[in-house]
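tool_log.txt
---
The assistant was asked to compare two proteins side by side. It first ran the structure predictor on the initial sequence, then on the second. Raw inputs and outputs are pasted verbatim so the downstream comparison step can read them without reformatting.
(1)
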Amino acid sequence: MSTEIETDSKSATSSRRLPPPLEPLQPLSWNYWWSWAPDGNEVFRDLDPGLWQQCEQNPRVLLAQVSDLRLAQVAADPAFADRIQRLSARFGDYLSDTQPWPKLQLARRITRETPIAYFCAEFGIHNSLPLYSGGLGILAGDHLKSASDLNLPLVAIGLFYRFGYFRQRLRRD
């Protein structure tokens, strides 16, 4: 499953050339796998802890806004580059494992080309993707992660709150 970040933020979608040791962060930032992977949050946070909080732990926004100086500093740190390589290798392994969990009893018509459609009003995947308001969304997000880990062909369809669920404004009319 590819849990990709979609956003209207110009800064989050702009492409930026990262120093070679940091390049694996680009594809990682497009998939929420980093949010549950050991050291995933920490790698992005350690680029710039203050900015990480300021951009609501959104790695796409972080990579677009972190300073060139800071990128050069962390790119020159062999221990940090090694962390990125290990994380990227685990991500590659995760994505390359496309076989459904052996004990899943899937109908033949359920394939990557014809997946299950999962409809829900909200999905609690990560706080940087504010598409949930509480329990239902968190449960739905857990279902998505489980489906991903089991390689269950599934597509989530829900509502996209342009400014996040908690930032909506309602008028009397």
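(2)
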Amino acid sequence: MGFSLSAGYGAAQAANAPFTTGRIFVVADSTDTNFNFIDELYRVDTYGLARRYSTITAALAACTAGNGDVIILSPLFTTALTATELLAAETKGVAITQAGKNVNGVYFEHRATATLPATTATPYFTVTGRVKITSIIGEVTTLVQTQACNAKLISNPTVGADVDLCAVLDITAAAVGAQFSITGTLANAMVKTTSGAGVFQAAPLLVMPGTIDFSTSATNTGATKWRVEYVPVDAGARIFAA
């Protein structure tokens, strides 16, 4: 069966896949709400090679070392690479990217608005591999209670000790629309901006697999939403809202 580059494998360009002289494979399992559409776009090619797989392992097995092959993960495929899959991707030189969340090489993830943690550290994002964070920005969506509350972001790795991504900021009475950001220097406090401009992260941070937690020292009413931008360091490394 033939295929149309504009309707089939060429759809990879809309997914922001890197340019490649190799082959494009897609990973999406049958529970994916877009499975039927993806299965139709990435069907068996004219040489009889399947282009859609249910696991990263199966897709990697179809890749040829040094060929410049690319694996695109469905936006709803959230399984992290195993150590074996990571080694195979690195050995074969396979690029692994997630569809629809890559703008000029920088990936992004949003966390929907939610109430503040109650005197605790709560996982806000899950990190599946080593990533370089270029910005992480929060926005107040419900006024924060007028009560002292020191807040910070923490890298909570699967292996090893926690690292604060910033020093604490008292977020008491933070108004709707206030922006929270970090500078990229671990010793600097998180920054709150209430005007029409804010502080953007000056230095990227290397963050390990695990979670990024938001910590508060008191139980305050209020709510925030967040956006993180990052560049994968490991093949297939991604960030998801926790």
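---
observation on (2): The chain has a mean pLDDT of 90. The CA atoms of residues 7 and 155 lie 41 Å apart.
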